[in-house]
Amino acid sequence: MADREACWISLGSVERWFIFSGWSMGVQLVSGATQDLGEMARALEAWRNGLRLKEIREVSPFVKVTELAEAHEKGPAEAVAVKWRLLLECLRRDSDRRELAHRTLKVAELAHAEPQLRQLLPFTSH
Fold first, then answer.
1. Is residue 57 a contact partner of residue 39, using CB atoms and an 8 Å limit?
2. Phi then psi for 49, rounded to 5 degrees?
3. In sequence order, what DSSP letters do the residues of 71-86 get, joined into one string?
4. Any bridge partners for residue 5, and if so which?
5. Whole-prediction pTM value?
6. Residue 32 phi/psi, 5° resolution?
7. Rounded Cα gap, residues 11 and 81, in angstroms
8. Most exposed of 13, 18, 27, 45 (fewest Cβ within 10 Å)?
9. Which class for 60: exposed (0-12), middle (13-18), buried (19 or more C-beta within 10 A)?
10. Going residue by residue through the chain (126 aa), what tens digit of pLDDT does each one get?
């Protein structure tokens, strides 16, 4: 992917851990941690060479890729659709236990029903 940013490598402070994080356009696409420097090198090479997320995971099984990250790789429209589905699923799951989720779900469902709003990436705050 041409728009990938440099990935981040952190080191564990107590034990030997290499912590990997790869981003593109402000979205974390991959993350993971390993104690094996060779595994980390393979993940970095895969990232640098522009392998698809699925391919990076195959080369480096410690790397985690979320459904939303895979959607971002497919393009903005796919990412928006997945984000809407995940938001609505989460709110529905929590709406019977939390009043705020119940109220937010009503607003989210109304927004999702509007085609123009459904094209925008949803998020909640405050």
1. no
2. -80, 0
3. HHHH-HHHHHHHHHHH
4. none
5. 0.78
6. 165, 170
7. 35
8. 13
9. buried
10. 557 888 889 999 899 999 999 998 888 999 999 999 999 999 999 999 999 999 999 999 999 999 999 999 999 999 999 999 999 999 999 988 888 888 999 999 999 999 999 999 998 876
